[in-house]
Amino acid sequence: FDIAKISPEDKLEKYSLPDTYYMISNQFWKHKNHLVAFDALEKLYNDGHKDIHIVCTGELKDYRDPGYPQEVKRKIESLQCGKNIHLLGYIPKRDQLGIMKRAKGIIQPTLFEGGPGGGAVYAAVTLGKTCLVSDIPVNREITGCDNVFFFGADKPEQLSVLMAAHMNDPADNETDPDEVNAKNRAILGNFIYDTITEAIGSYRRRE
């Protein structure tokens, strides 16, 4: 299916989504670093921004660290903003992208990623959504996208500032989705091409 044409109202009533939310669309593996985002939300909540939520998709399971899901749950229970954190679990891809379309933006707090931003950022950039991304080196390779903003991976206060700054961004992108899709696919395609070309050049120089 074409992600640019998914309706943000497409069968999402079952999730009872809040009006103002950021989305984290990662597996609940420890290195995905959800807790820094929860700490950022807590700071906003205690500063009076009680209408901002975080919606998480992904299975609450970490095969590398089986005790981590319980750590996540305990963390949420300890926070004043705990009721503003929504764990939806593993959901259909179409629903995930529909929820992303309704979000104020996505948060990618990861401490490690195989490629710049991971799949969630690729989808969000394609949709023209605001992306708040940890500043680890691989993520810093995301260039040319004016909707991507970086924060320190261990600095929830920096993330909270970005969340507050973009909480009034329109959830529904007014730009033609096909135009956004084409523009950002070109940016990401050029980045992948340049990366491959650089890798080939580096390999040949070693020969």
Helix and strand layout, with pairings?
Elements: E1 21-25, H1 34-46, E2 53-57, H2 68-78, E3 85-87, H3 93-102, E4 105-108, H4 118-126, E5 130-134, E6 148-151, H5 156-166, H6 177-206
Parallel strand pairs: 1-2, 1-4, 2-3, 4-5, 5-6
Structural features:
207 residues; alpha/beta; 13% strand; globular
Tell me the number of helical segments per DSSP (H or I, 4 or more residues long).
6
User: Percentage of helical residues?
Assistant: 40-55%
Strands, total number: 6
Strand proportion: 5-15%
Brief digest:
By secondary structure, the protein is α/β, with parallel strands linked by helices. The chain contains six helices and six strands.
How does this structure look, described?
By secondary structure, this protein is an alpha/beta fold. It has helices at residues 34-46, 68-78, 93-102, 118-126, 156-166, 177-206, and strands at residues 21-25, 53-57, 85-87, 105-108, 130-134, 148-151. Helix 2 links the parallel strand 2 (53-57) and strand 3. The radius of gyration is 17 Å and the shape is globular. The model has no long low-confidence stretch (mean pLDDT 86).
